[in-house]
Amino acid sequence: MATTSGDTTDRVTPYAVLGELTHRCPLRCPYCTNPLLLDRAGEELTTNEWKDVMDQSVQMGVLHFHFSGGEPAVRKDLDDLVEHAAKIGLYTNLITSGVLLDEARIHRLSALGLDHVQISFQDSDPEIGDWVAGRKGAHEKKKRVAGWVREAGLPLTVNAVMHRHNLHHLKDIIQLAVDLDADRIEVAQVQYYAWALRNRAAFLPTREQLDESVRIVNAERERLKGRLSFDFVVPDYYAQRPKSCMGGWGRQFLNITPSGTVLPCHAAEIIPNVNFENIRDKALELIWRDSQGFNEFRGTSWMREPCKSCDRREIDWGGCRCQAYALTNDASAADPTCAFSEHRSVLEEPLQEANKPAPKFVYRRYGN
Ligand code: SF4
Ligand code: SF4
Q1: pLDDT per position as a tens digit, 191-233
Q2: Helix 126-133 and helix 138-151: axis angle, to 10°?
Q3: Cβ–ligand 2 contact at 71 (below 6 Å)
């Protein structure tokens, strides 16, 4: 991949595309980071439009294609799309809740060339799992699906979204991944965008919970070396420096919404006055390379202090633009999860809420 020194005329090549086939989803997770306004089924890209997106991606040098949503298995043409992606040489990953899949379809997807499956789990405890997902029986179904995935010979990643209601089960969740014969676990804290921001006080863990989770992950990573690989994302509200969101705006990834809007990350549409173009109107490469949306925060030339002269500016790229906007109303500010940010104090109130009794969830619902 070419590098960028911050001049937006420098060229970079994306290596992965996240295709959100649909926003439809049978679960109601209160931590859902899909936008408040979901795309309707009638607006979704057609089978041929998605195939064209994949063809254009390969021409640009993209290697990975993630089928995501919503729940991508809602789409009956998922099988057809996986087959096409495999034929043109893309490495394919299905990001799914699992609840709509059955054994025959998993074996079919595997035979058609699917390379990898990622299933989200809400807890190790079925009752808490179903409560968070907002669907009875979801947890047990996910476990069955994970078994079929491994029987079909597909590598499995367990995605565990952690928060104040399940961090005390972290060790059991890691063991669940081992019992399911997963290759990898993503221990990811809730990210507070879109719908999840509404439920922040219900999810944000305490500092003590976080410290304990770091200790557990370090010990389990050592214990399971060579058996299970770990990705660990800590809640950035407690961090001193922000995460390198998406590896930098418009540097490695692009995201395509169900209705074809091309984004540098899936939350980017919350930022006003940035023009994100649609694959129905323009070629993918032109959008990636030349559009205002992708060039607005690409590289470092948009930065002001403290990022502008910071020696981490090409490491974390100023953190997350969406988080900067969500918390400060200014998308070009340093991410307030950085200790150098002038807006750092906006985190004080939510961090205090983490020590109070959790409010009830506001569940997500497609069509609501
Ligand atoms: S409701 Fe849950 S499973 Fe469905 S898209 Fe949102 S986070 Fe994913
Ligand atoms: S000042 Fe900006 S570049 Fe430096 S660590 Fe903070 S967010 Fe990153």
Answers
A1: 888 899 999 999 999 999 989 999 999 999 999 999 999 999 8
A2: 100
A3: no
